[in-house]
Amino acid sequence: MGLDARLVVYATDKSTAETACAAAFARIAELEAIMSDYRQDSELMRLCDQAGGAPVWVSYDLMTVLRRAEEVSRLSGGAFDITAGPLVGLWRAARRSGVLPEPAAIEQARQLVGWEKVELDLRAQTVRLRTPGMRLDLGGIAKGYACDEAQRVLKKHGITRALVEMGGDLVMSGPPPG
User: Fold this and answer.
1) In whole angstroms, how far apart are CA 171 and each of 6, 71, 155?
2) Between the CA of residue 12 and those of 2, 25, 99, 151, what are the distances in Å?
3) Is 45:134 a contact under the CB 8 Å cutoff?
4) Are 69 and 80 in contact (CB under 8 A)?
C-alpha cells in the first residue's frame, strides 16, 4: 500500500514471536495484493479497470472494506470518499512534477468522484462502479483494516501484547509487560 509495516510484539519466546510475526506480515502482504492502488495487478485496480461496466465479484476482504467505507461515507455526508482516486492521482503527479494540475483536469476528475456511484451487492458479493474512469483509493481505510487483521493473526498465534504500525496508523493490543 505504498508504505512499510512495523510490528512490536511481546512473546514468551523468540520462536513464537518470529512465527507469529511471519504470519502477520503474510496477512498484510495478502491484503496489499487485494487493496493497493500502487499495484496495477491488485484486486482493487482490476475492479477499477471495470468501471462503467457490469458488476464485478470481489473477495470477502475487499467487500468488507468497501462496505465499511460506504457506511462512513454515508455517516460523514460524503466527507469520507474512497472514489477520490482520480483527484488523488492528479495531486500525486503534481507532487512528483512540481506543477499544479490544470483547472480543467481537476474538474474532469471531480466528475468521476462520488461515493454514491459505487453499488455494492452484498448477496452476490459484487461491486459496480457506475462511471467509466472511476478509481478507488482505500488509503483512508485499508491500512487500519490491515493493522486489525495483523493483530487478529498475532492473537491466533498467542501474542496478546503487540503494536502494529503502518504509515502512522496504529493498532495496539495489550500493553507491554509491567
Assistant:
1) 11, 21, 13
2) 32, 19, 53, 17
3) no
4) yes
**Beta strands, E only, the chain:** 5-10, 56-57, 118-121, 126-129, 161-166, 169-172
Dihedral of CA 35/50/66/112: which sign? positive
Retrieve residue 19's grid coordinates: 512465527
Cβ–Cβ < 8 Å for 83, 113: yes
**pLDDT tens digits for the chain (178 residues)?**
667 899 999 999 999 999 999 999 999 999 999 999 889 999 999 999 999 999 999 999 999 999 999 999 999 999 999 999 999 999 999 999 999 999 999 999 999 999 999 999 999 999 999 999 999 999 999 999 999 999 999 999 999 999 999 988 899 999 988 8
Distance from C-alpha of 32 to C-alpha of 173, rounded to nearest angstrom: 22
DSSP E strand boundaries for 5-160:
5-10, 56-57, 118-121, 126-129
141, 127 Cβ separation under 8 angstroms: no
b or e along 51-82 (b: 16 or more beta carbons within 10 Å of the residue's beta carbon)?
Answer: beeebbebeebbbebbeebbebbeeeeeebbb
Q: Is the pTM of this model over 0.85?
A: yes
